Structures are given as C-alpha cells and as structure tokens.
Amino acid sequence: MLNTYFDNASTSYPKPQQVALDIADYLNNNSSTYGRGAYGSIRATTSMVERCRDMIAKKISCDSPEKVFFTQNATTAINTILKGLFLTRNDVSRILISPMEHNAVMRPLEYLRSLGKVEYDIMPHYPDGLIDVDKLLITLEDINYSLLITNHQSNVNGVVQPIADIKKIAADTPLLVDATQSLGSIDIDAGDCDFLAFTGHKYLFGPTGVGGLYISAPELITPLVHGGTGSNSESYEMPDFYPDMFEAGTPNTTGITGLLAAMEANVESRHTREEFLEVINKFINIESITVYCAKDVDNRGELFSFRHKNISSAEFTHRLYQQFGICTRSGLHCAPLAHRTLGTIKGGTVRIALSKYHSFEDLNYLVSSVEKIANE
Questions:
Q1: Listing from the earlier edge strand, what are the strands of the sheet with 329-331?
Q2: Which residues does 43 contact at the CB level (< 8 Å), separation at least 6?
Q3: Where in the chain are the domains?
C-alpha cells in the first residue's frame, strides 16, 4: 500500500507499531507516576523515564543525561530558555537569530521585546536562508550579543544550518538550537550548542505532548515552571539539582513511554539519500512550479516546498488530497519570518515533508501526481 502522507513536519505518520502497544500496556497495567514513591510500579515508570532520557542524551552525544529535561514540546522548551535567561533582567539584551525561525522562537522573542527585555537582529544569510558564516563572523566582531538562535533544519524549505561552524564562530556567545525538524533524521552534537530544544512527535516517531531541552549550564537558567517534584518536599523552593529543577509537576509518562518505544524501534529508511535528491530534481524540472529548498545539495534536509505559477498553494494542496489522497500542508507553516526571507509570505507554499517510512515508489507517486495537477 502506498504511503501518501507527506506532512511529517507537522507530526510523523505512521508511528512504529510498538509505540501504541507500549502505551496501551502502560495504561492498562501500570500508569504509575514518576519519582513519587518507592513501590514496584513507580520504580518501573521511573526507570522507563530515565532510559528514555539516556537515549535522548545518547542521540545528541551528551555525556550528562541529567542535563536533558522533558517538557510538553519544543515550544515549552524554547520558552523555558528565553524567559529563563531574559525575563528577570533589568537591561536590554541583544539577540541574533537565523532568518528561518519558527513562531516557537519569534513569539516569545516578540513578547520579551514588548517588555523591553530584548532586541533582536537577523543573521547574514544567502537567499535560501542558509547562514553566511563568513559575514556572521564580522557581525559578531562588531556587536556584543547575549544569545544566538537558529533552527537546525527549516520547517519551510529544509535548509540545514552549519551548527558546528556557527558555534565555533560564536565562541563564548551562547547558542540555542531548535532541533524540532532534525532530531531523529540528522545527526547533532550537544557540544555544538549551549541549549537544544526538541520534540518527540516528528522525526523521533513518538506521540504528541512530549519534548524537551538540553542545557549545558542549567544553573544559568531560571525555571519557567515551579511546583512539586517529589523531591525536597519540605521546602517551598524548587530543588537546585537536575533534572528536578526543570521538571515541576507530573510528567507525561504516557508520552515518554511512547517516545522510548519509538526510539527503541530504530526505524530504517525505506528510501536512499540519492532517491530523495532525485525527487527534488524531478520537482525542479516541472516548468510551472518553483521549488524552495537549499541551494547546496549538502544542506538539503528531507523537506522542501513549492508554488505553482497559477494555482494557489491552498488549492494545490486541496487537489492533491482530493484527486490522489496525498496529505500535504499549505500556507505559512507558523514561520512567517522564513517566508519573508524566501519571498513567499503572500500565499505561502505547499510543503513536502518525507519520512523514513516512504519508499521510492511512494516518492514517484508524489511526483507523478504533482505533475498531473501542475500540467492541467
């Protein structure tokens, strides 16, 4: 059966079969919380959460799993970092961001700007949104920034930013990386950033409602949420040790159960890198559409967008689904800054986001379907 779901940048589908099985087993046979007691089922749940934390740490080459914290999603993780750094400051901090940021970054930044806490500038970049590291070096020599922010992979055109190069240039200036669209599909090293936000429901193949963050120096961040942790319960103040300091309240142990199952499934891709690049070239060769992807092949993640010269992106998406059962997303993808960078703010684009579950046959069906609509 063909896999016609190409909206994996929103949430991945399908999930590994074990995800649903393990969640059902947890709900039916355990359902104990994390770290709030010493009886058997709580110990089992606590062990499961820590195994998941260890797996995330291993995925980002982090030697300190206690510096990986679970949150509701990447948005909560980003808010934790930005507000934890700047909300209580009395001065105005300058921040430098990539030109491809999602509203998960832009909206908390704009909120902080409205309070007079921060001002932000856009990193020098090429037309496809790739950061120009040579000009970035000059920029950082001229201005003292408190934080750099970039997503690892754009959720609009799939451009993959050179994180290691950026961090090398940034030197002592902290770097926040939004790995929402990359963790699980592209290698990333926690040593190349100071903060990293991730979600579980995209390329890690887990359920919605669970994500997290990595903080290299947690003592520098004020927690966003305060509350019960099951530890130091005699104190009204948050614990000063990790991970408790950033994990107030009952965690989403159901979601973490599913995330662990997804990562343990270790899904192998059903298509090759070469086959993906071949598909992009086929799209580029369709005369009536414009493709938005990284110019350099080496910076192309398995996500891209396109626009037709006559058919609106919304209408094209509708036709793909009605005529061929293909699921895509049109519009601005919650990333207006990225669309302003690409010149697609009016009407947005049709986004194609692949999964490891796509075969080359699935990709060819996508291409032929787009061609039929584009040439009508």
A1: 289-292, 303-308, 349-353, 329-331
A2: none
A3: 17-265, 273-374
Tell me the C-alpha distance between 360 and 271, whole Å. Answer: 6
Q: Are 231 and 244 in contact (CB under 8 A)?
A: yes
Buried b (16+ CB within 10 A) or exposed e, 316-336: bbebbeeebebbbbbebbebb
Check residue 40 and give its pLDDT.
86
What are the structure tokens assigned to 247, written together? 């994990």
Q: How far is CA 113 from the centre of its chain?
A: 23
pLDDT for res 35: 79
Q: Dig out the tokens for 259 from the structure.
A: 């995330």
Residue 301 identity (one-letter amino acid): G
Among candidates 156, 90, 96, 91, which has minimal Cα distance to 120? 96
- Does domain 273-374 correspond to CATH entry 3.90.1150.10? yes
Convert the pLDDT of each residue in 49-71 to its tens digit. 999 999 999 999 999 999 999 99
CATH of domain 17-265: 3.40.640.10
Mean pLDDT over 354-358 rounds to 98
- Cβ atoms < 10 Å from Cβ of 168: 12
Render pLDDT for 3-52 as a digit per residue (tens, 0 to 9): 999 999 999 999 999 999 999 999 999 888 887 878 988 899 999 999 99
Beta-bridged to residue 291, according to DSSP, are 306
